[in-house]
Amino acid sequence: MLVDPQSHDQPFRFVTASPAFSEAFCQELSALFDDPSLTWTEHRTFYEASISDVTHRVRVPQELIDQLADLLDVPLTSHTQVTAQRMVPGQFAEPHTDRPLLGYESVRVVLQLNRSWTRGGELVLGDTLRPPRWNSAFAFVLHPGAVHAIRTVEEERHTIVFHFWHAANTLELAEAVAELFEGLSFAGLGDFDAPEMSEEESHEAGCIAWCCRQWGRDDPAAQALARYLTRLRRQEFDPLAERVPPGTGLPIEALAYPV
């Protein structure tokens, strides 16, 4: 579990802890960066780093999952992933949100393991810089408003990232949605004889109607439902908004409900 976590509300909701974990646990994690058996993948997009999946090497206790669910007010599953991430001098991360897609993780804990840090590689949160000091952690919910960046690294930067999944955005859900839309083509969307609907609205209604047909409903009632749901979205009223856990302040997109 995180040691003495502190909650923050600006520029978005997040949690910090320093020290974050026991010294022995951090030593164990830090040793992974010297392990020659690890396989590293180079990333050279908006986030420049080398990343290695170390899930099989790190046990994530259920107590940590429960603690994060309580601190961030987000229901989490027991599924986790752990990655080791290394940045070398000259690398950086542009401002981004890590907005999750269907089946992506929804919460991250970023643990810094840089014992001799002096400057560079700070986490940028609004007007605040958070240095990557040894055994300091930053936990947050991935959503469109969680904009952050990393300043240019001047010393090698070691980070362990713990990834957690929202109960409403599981890997199983992503697989089910992919199966639902397998074989979808433009011709299969159907033709909506509704002059009041734009081309974009007709396309969206066609996707909803496709789902209805996949579920065995290909009748006028299903067609009417497709139109109705599309019009609701265009009026910026979302009937699923009530499913957002109270107090999260997250938009519905952050929960990745397929609408």
List keywords for this structure.
259 residues, alpha+beta, Jelly Rolls, 2 domains, eight-stranded antiparallel sheet, four-stranded antiparallel sheet, 5 helices, 12 strands, disordered C terminus
Overview of this protein structure:
With 259 residues, the protein is α+β, with helices and mostly antiparallel strands. It has 2 domains: 6-169, q2cbj1_9rhob like domain (Jelly Rolls, Sandwich); 181-255, no CATH class. 23% of the residues lie in helices and 25% in strands. Strand 1 (6-8) and strand 2 form a beta hairpin. Mean pLDDT is 84; it is low at 236-259.
What's the main sheet like? 8 strands, antiparallel
| CATH homology group of the largest domain | q2cbj1_9rhob like domain
Shape: elongated
**Total domains:** 2
Low-confidence stretches: 236-259
In the CATH hierarchy, the third-tier topology of the largest domain is known as Jelly Rolls
DSSP summary, beta strand count: 12
* Gap from first CA to last CA: 35 Å
Percentage beta strand: 15-25%
Tell me the radius of gyration: 22 Å
**CATH class category label of the largest domain:** Mainly Beta
Strand order in space, largest sheet: 1-2-10-7-12-5-4-3
- The overall pLDDT, averaged over residues, is 84
The CATH architecture of the largest domain can be given as Sandwich
How much helical structure, as a percent, in the residues? 10-25%
Order of helices and strands: EEHEEHEEEEEEEEHHH
- Count of helical regions: 5
Structural class: alpha+beta
